[in-house]
């Protein structure tokens, strides 16, 4: 289908999260840039990607790797120019690839001209662009997100003797959405980039736009009202484009971000088209370690239905720490013990590691995790480099250890840049297991048995079976907690995905009587022998350690 004609394209899309700095360097300065991405688009196309999400690309002092924006109307000089950006979008579209960018509404950099003005005096015209207070005692019920570095959400500013509010680093003052000029101006920012033909936004840190005393200042009705206004602009002026919301919240708090009416799933959503399902992610890791599917099943049971024009976005890893905010304190401790034995691996309430190292570089586990992801309700997102099993460097500052240069080849510089590797923005991964000499795109593309090819196949099979994007989901009873069996169904099709989370042979006993008379077809081509016909008696399937398969039942 052409880019213009399918308004619900995102429901069955494969997303790819791409850090511009880390991907490919076109001008030999040791930093990735926009023009560097263009020759790599065919690679993403080959993997089966439908939509690229670009991390923030704006001028920034980079105190939070670009999430601290100093100018919303420009491109960071390291990354190129607005013309380069337009060229990238055109080249992507020419290949049928969509592009969304980060939209950071909540805060700016303290180097933004608005804040430089705002902090000058109490009567500066920009004063009310930010949230100022005589005391640091307001909004005490609000949690601190960057716990390892920020003692408070307030920072004292000497010039005027007042405090300013910030949910992230002190160098990221929160914008004041009670000021209608701010609210309107950010809509102008959105239009500026939409007018360049992009396909939407990943909207950053959306729960925190407004502050109200006596609340935790998250998910407030005022915030939802503003986001609905943003959505209305897209619907009116840019049909077919999307808003993907980053709200790290529990499922019942996530539901309102889709809008519509929670009591009436038939009513279309009028807020975000998509939202990341944060809570299911750490539960996949817990399930894999304990060989127990229960928590995945429970959190999906706790997940309210969403409007039919909406979609979850599911992920295993991203550019941040693997957040453990959406688990109990007990599980947080457990997951830290299991996945971050070295204290250096921990950051804030999470774990700063990549997928492959988290899963002991165990190919079977990496595939299994991806198979779970690809069969959950939602559109999957792949974090750059995870498709080849890249490693991390926990010794780099903040979350930079999961943002190292993409490993394209085994040559010096890893095909990332022609500059001298010691001048790269970050060191290449260079160890025995994950070094670019061994883990790189060229080697994996040449090897039909590589992780890249396995994932490419999974992507292709998923896309050939739209029921995996659009169908209902139901976790079947298996009589065995080590087995996760997810039935995805529509009027036309039914696929049962079976996962053995344990390191032992397991048997699932399933009630498939609705499909009596049918012979399951192995979609991924992984079964050595074919399965017998389904009847009305319990259907028993044996599954090898860490094995998975997708069975077409209809
Ligand atoms: C989001 C981003 C994260 C950033 C934060 C503040 O959580 O994913 O990288 O630090 O917002 O903008």
Task: Give descriptors for this structure.
single chain, alpha/beta, five-stranded antiparallel beta sheet, 25% helix, globular, binds alpha-D-glucopyranose
Can you walk me through this structure?
The longest helix is centred in the middle third of the chain and has 17 residues, at 221-237. The protein has 554 residues and is α/β, with parallel strands linked by helices. It is built from 16 helices and 21 strands. The two termini are 24 Å apart. The protein has helices at residues 20-23, 34-37, 41-47, 82-94, 113-118, 180-194, 221-237, 251-254, 280-290, 294-301, 329-339, 355-358, 363-375, 441-446, 451-464, 467-470; strands at 15-18, 51-54, 98-104, 132-133, 154-157, 162-165, 200-204, 242-245, 274-276, 311-315, 322-323, 346-347, 350-351, 379-383, 472-475, 483-489, 494-500, 506-510, 521-522, 539-543, 548-552. The mean pLDDT is 97. An 8-stranded parallel β-barrel has the order 1-2-3-7-8-9-10-14. It has a 5-stranded antiparallel β-sheet with strand order 15-16-17-21-19. The chain binds alpha-D-glucopyranose (GLC). Alpha-D-glucopyranose (GLC) is lined by residues 64, 67, 104, 168, 204-205, 246, 319-320.
In short:
The two termini are 24 Å apart. By secondary structure, the protein is an alpha/beta fold.
Straight-line N-to-C gap: 24 Å
The hetero compounds bound to this protein are:
alpha-D-glucopyranose
Which range best describes the helical content: under 10%, 10-25%, 25-40%, 40-55%, 55-70% or over 70%? Answer: 25-40%
Spatial extent as radius of gyration? 23 Å
Judged by helices, strands and strand pairing, the structural class is alpha/beta
